[in-house]
# Entry
Amino acid sequence: MKLFLTLVLWTLLFVLCWPLALLIVVAWPLLWLLSIPFRMVGIVLTALLTLLRELLLLPARVLGYRDAKA
# Structure
């Protein structure tokens, strides 16, 4: 009886999950394409914030301060 219940549960799992897996396979590339503009905005913002940080720290570097990590 335990083996029968296990087989029934596995069969039910496969019957219910294959549409979800198929949806993920189809939707994943679409979501990836939709996320490209957001990633580009993130890259640009990171570059702008790094530029601002370097501009603000430029006088200290000119006076001889060295960052601990560099």
